[in-house]
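1st attempt posting a full record on here, be nice pls
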Amino acid sequence: MAGASRGIYNTLFRKNYVFLGVVFASAFAFEMTYDNVMDKVWDSFNKGRQWKDIRAKYVESGDDE
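the predicted structure (as tokens):
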């Protein structure tokens, strides 16, 4: 276990610019994943109540706005 933690330290955390890159890349990936998951949760809870679900009832022409 000490060898694995030493390898991670030497690879990711030893140099400040690499550490900052890892932090920013991880934060960006987490934000994108969280945003997609929460959009899917929101859509599942509100299915049938959103404009994208009921648009066909109110728009008669084939033109998109």
